[in-house]
Amino acid sequence: MSRPAGASLRAITGTVRDVFQSLRQHRLGWALPIALVLLTLAGILALLALVPAIAPFIYPVL
Amino acid sequence: MRVLGLALGDAGAAAALVEDGIVVAAATEERFSRQRLDPNYPAQAVEFVLGGRSPDVVAASGEPTERFTRVLTASLASPFPAGAGAFVRNMKAWIGHHLWTRDSVSRRLDVDPDRITFVPRDRALAKHALAAAGWEQGTVVVADTAGDWACTSTLAMTPAGLRVVESVAYPHSLGLFAATIAGLLGFALDDLERLPALAGFGRPVYATRMRRMLVVATDPGKPAYTLDPAMFDFARLAEWPRSSPWTGGLTDQLGAPRDARRPLPFPGPVEAEDQRYADIAASFVVVVEEALTEVFKRAATAGAPSAGLCFTGPVAACAPGAARMAVAAGFGEVFIPDEPGPAGGAVGAALIVGATPDRADSRMAGPFLGQAYDERADVLALMQMDTTWWQRWRKPGSRPIRGARLEFCDAPSPAMVAEELVAGRVVGWCRGAFEWGPHARGHRSLLAGPESAPALLAVRGQPAWCPVELVTQSADPALNDVIAAHAVITGIVGLAHADLCEDDAPLVASPADAVLLFMRTDVDTLILGNTLCRKLYP
Description:
Shape of chain A: flat
Helix content of chain B: 25-40%
CATH superfamily of the domain at 376-536 in chain B: Carbamoyltransferase, C-terminal domain
Shape of chain B: globular
Structural class of chain B: alpha/beta
Oligomer: heterodimer
Number of helices of chain B: 19
């Protein structure tokens, strides 16, 4: 068994979808904007960490 | 179908392999890493259980997204500014790592993420308990710390399947209450077994105050119990020990926390401050058992066709009277698995995902699901060791062995082991595959005659809870024969028994670990497989 191409992207988007579903299921819709901001911020930091010139400044934050 | 079960992201990470509905192997990571309750990804345990094979599917205990939503809302609810640090730390841990478990496991195991299934933790723990009991039907009470959202769940296993009957949701957690008291008494937060051990030296003089923190409700329309939120801030658990999960309200009631660096003097003479710690532990055990009594009473009407109760979850490790109370609540039979902690979820999740229509019943073939070793190389190393060199390995305060000799003999008989015990020696016994649970069941055991029990406890270090265990011929013939041989000589049917490990270390895994323990401590005789090694003192 091996990972198909794009498996990581699929896993990550699936996880984000599950987080929003879980918040709605527990009637925590008010936390959706906070979760969205946090996850977006995490995404931006993760992308910045891929840039070699910026990565040393990002890892301490992570 | 080959299912790899995982318990991740909590104290006691573990892996298990289920093939066609049968648990083939299981191990906790702590055995290999030698770090007690190791919470890291169980890489070595996975390597052992898979043995070079690839899993068809992967099942993990606990749903990361559910836990994330719980942690997020709890962190937001934590009072500002004290809770700000906990929020940052929790979010860094979760958004930086734990939330993406599906992707990280998929990468580590090189499997398609769609083949990874997350099973709710209460269901996974319940399934493991039922499999360990060998029951196809029954009621299960899971008293967890904080799994996904459910903290204490009652589940009924019927021919239609496993269903949740009643659940007490976060933050009303008996496990987190226990962790808070453990922290207050200077223990590790997940070391809940220390509480009943310390409780044995105290009186429940704080029970009335604790009943205001843990309120039991007899009204069936309400949860079985609730915690007073003014006393606890569980979001701050992430910052332990820099920040504590209790508030000033709790320390006003119970007093200041214990300095963990100061050793407990029990069972010797104690000061009033030390006695207070034992009294808090005794009070905790009383009020938790009262809450469990209410949970068990409600569980007795859960509708399972069997009269048996499985009790599992980390709280099972700190409620010594639980079985008695369950019987009083109306259950005819009570079973507590060897591994009631989160690690049991690895087995349960794999069994749930691996269940097939033709094999709905799942059982575990005893507790010895860990790795077996060839001990000959370790025996050889021990035979060639210079005993004077040992001194540098010895634990401070242990008996000097300078000038000692080692005696070896092959194939020790039960009578030979019994003679060691009658001579007042503490015997370490390491044989076959190690126990999957956290405690010895005969393959990684410390044994002593009843009169030598204090010497055995001295090897173990801190006070430990040693419940009575029943050994039968079918469960463990070798240990049963030793008990019988000891009874023939002394007339006493029973031995003092403890885990083969030092106080803060996990149970011994390999013979090399056992040899190191033998070298460091006052274990007088070590049996490795078919070899008996005896220290001779000057």
